[in-house]
Amino acid sequence: MDTLSGTLFAIKRYALHDGPDLRVTVFLKGCPLSCAWCHNPEGMRPAVQMLSLPGRCVGCGECLTACPSGALSAGQGAVERDAKACTACGTCAEVCPALAHEALGRRWTVAEVMAEIEKELPFFADSQGGVTFSGGEPLAQPDFLEELLLACGRLGVHRAVDTSGFAAPKTALRIARHTDLFLFDLKHMDPAAHRHATGVDNAPILANLHLLAEAGARVQLRLPLIPGFNDGDENLRQTGRLAVSLPGVDGIDVLPYHATAKGKYAKLGLPYPGADIPAADPRQTERAAEILRNCGLRVRIGG
Fold first, then answer.
1. pLDDT (tens digit, 9 = 90+) per residue, 192-240?
2. What predicted TM-score, i.e. pTM, was given to this entire model?
């Protein structure tokens, strides 16, 4: 199964906030949610995307000649791309000397990903360090994810899956068999509010959370704290009551909102959907943490 392939948009080394100790974080492309505060907009679409950066174009024409689908043409001061004709093969990015084209994601085989992970094995020795599969939503590529988890298990590497929990129950249980730790987001307890901000209902997410906890999976809850959305006292209390009711769960990470991804949206030519979200207030963050502590939870601010 080393030839099985999936789509990634990044591999991040020396990650410190994606699970215990030092990690390699593998970002799988594609997500069924559309959160207004998403930090990885380049990971939302499942397919590879091609991005042109006109300000870098030097007009050399290399990409026009190389493009196998004829999707590129000379425009006013920069190359123009026919999105319908483009097959996202990445040839233009490979030949452009000015880096005026960029591929958002590419197909990787299991063997290729594991070759990158194996380079970091010395850093995992004598620690809980390992690999975290994130996204996007890693559960959206279950076959590819499962093979990566199995390959990491054969090497004795600690495996974490960072997930929204939105997946079929059989997928969640299948992946749980090969996962040492789930980093599981809880975004809002109210179904309507959750649907409005993320595009999906929270019922499958909450059902999978119960399913994983009752199956004995190790779950670390995470609350992305979004001002004006889920930082109200009642939602925090409901979140806390749910968390303490789950077997094996005694802690939650509170992750204050920040707008550092705004530049990514600009690069992609997209409006930033979190433009109206106010900056995180440290006092409200501490208040949220205190409400959760009063529910009986161990609370850590930040991941």
1. 999 999 999 999 999 999 999 999 999 999 999 999 999 999 999 999 9
2. 0.93
Tokens of 187: 């975004």
Shared domain check, 82 and 207 = no
Residue of 11, 7, 22, 17 whose CA lies nearest to 117: 11
Pick from 147, 91, 108: which is nearest to 27 by CA? 108
Q: CA–CA separation, 301 vs 289, rounded Å?
A: 7
Report the alpha-carbon distance of residue 58 to residue 175 in Å, rounded: 47
* Residue 73 belongs to domain spanning: 49-103
- Cα(63)–Cα(295) distance, rounded to whole angstroms? 59
Which CATH number do you get for residue 63? 3.30.70.20
- For the cut 80, the answer to whether the pLDDT of residue 126 exceeds it is no
Query: What separation, in Å, do the N-terminal and C-terminal C-alpha atoms of the chain show?
Result: 33
Q: Is there a contact between 166 and 175 (Cβ–Cβ < 8 Å)? A: no
The alpha carbon dihedral of 188, 192, 193, 196 has a sign of positive
Asked whether 236 and 292 are in contact (CB, 8 A), the reply is yes
Q: In DSSP terms, which residues pair with 161 in a beta bridge?
A: 133, 182
Residues 6+ away with beta carbon under 8 Å from 185: 163, 164, 165, 222, 223, 224
3-state secondary structure of 226: coil
What's the domain count of the chain? 2
User: Side chain identity at 263, as an amino acid letter?
Assistant: G
Q: What is the DSSP letter of 38?
A: -
